[in-house]
Amino acid sequence: MRSRTPDRLCAEAVDVALTVTQEAVGAHSVGEHLGVVAEGDRVVTHLFACKEPAYRGWQWATTLTRASRAKAVTIDETVLLPGPDAVLAPEWVPWNERLRPGDMGPGDLLPTDADDLRLLRQIQTLQAFGFELEETRPFVDCLRAGHSAGDTCAASLAVYRRKLAELDAMVARLRSVRAEVASQLVRAELEAAGEGGPMCELGAVGAPLTGEETRTP
Asked: What is the pLDDT of residues 59-93, one digit of tens each?
């Protein structure tokens, strides 16, 4: 709990606080002594006017303290604090609370909220199609940029084209394998019926599919 009465020894050490403040920020920046504030038991902050033109109304605050039963004060810190008449920036207001009628025009886009459910739906839909999580990023970024759909941006369209190329390669591979299996089935049926036919095994085309083979070169 902050003490209401400043420690006498710390409060009387104005010259010490002034010297420390001038050494820390430069004598040209330190103005008159404005008073003291009790921060706690044997902890006192000395306030000095700030003479910097860009910080009108601000105050240099140098805090002094001393150990119990000790008479010598020691330095804690020196900081710049706003005073009652300090010029401060206005309180920050989120963009979605700053918008007023007339701020938006035709073609203007607004970013999405962090909890926009459309982002989750977009990811779930793409993953249901077999898209990897990283491949959904352009679609999410498109929605966050303010577009009504996640697949209307150039990056999203590029992912669609790349995925279609991969699927086309897989389909061509499957067709080739199917043709080979069908050929082997005909041979096997003829042989089983006693009409003969050369014995052969599935060649390279009929080899089992692997994850690497289904990828687009």
From this structure: 999 999 999 989 999 999 999 999 998 988 888 88
Dist CA 44 CA 21 (whole Å): 14
Within this chain, do residues 129 and 68 fall inside the same structural domain, yes or no? no
- For residue 189, give every residue at least 6 positions away whose Cβ sits within 8 Å of its Cβ, in sequence order, or none: none
Provide the residue range defining the domain that includes 137.
Answer: 117-206
| Contact assessment for residue 46 and residue 32, using Cβ atoms and an 8 Å cutoff | no
Instruction: Please give the Cα distance from 144 to 114 (Å, whole number).
Output: 9
- How is residue 174 written in tokens? 């499957």
CA dihedral (122, 127, 132, 137) in degrees, to 10, reads 0
Pick the closest to residue 66 from 17, 31, 1 (CA basis): 17
List all residues 6 or more positions away from 215 whose beta carbon is below 8 Å from its beta carbon: 166, 169
pLDDT score at 15: 96
CB 166 within 8 A of CB 130: no
Domains: count for the chain = 2
Paired tokens of 171: 């389909």
For 32-50, give one letter per residue: b (16+ CB within 10 A) or e: ebeebebbeebbbbbbbbb
Percent share of the chain, pLDDT over 90: 51
State how far the Cα of 93 lies from the Cα of 8, in Å rounded to an integer: 43
DSSP H helical ranges for the chain:
8-12, 14-25, 95-98, 117-128, 137-144, 154-192
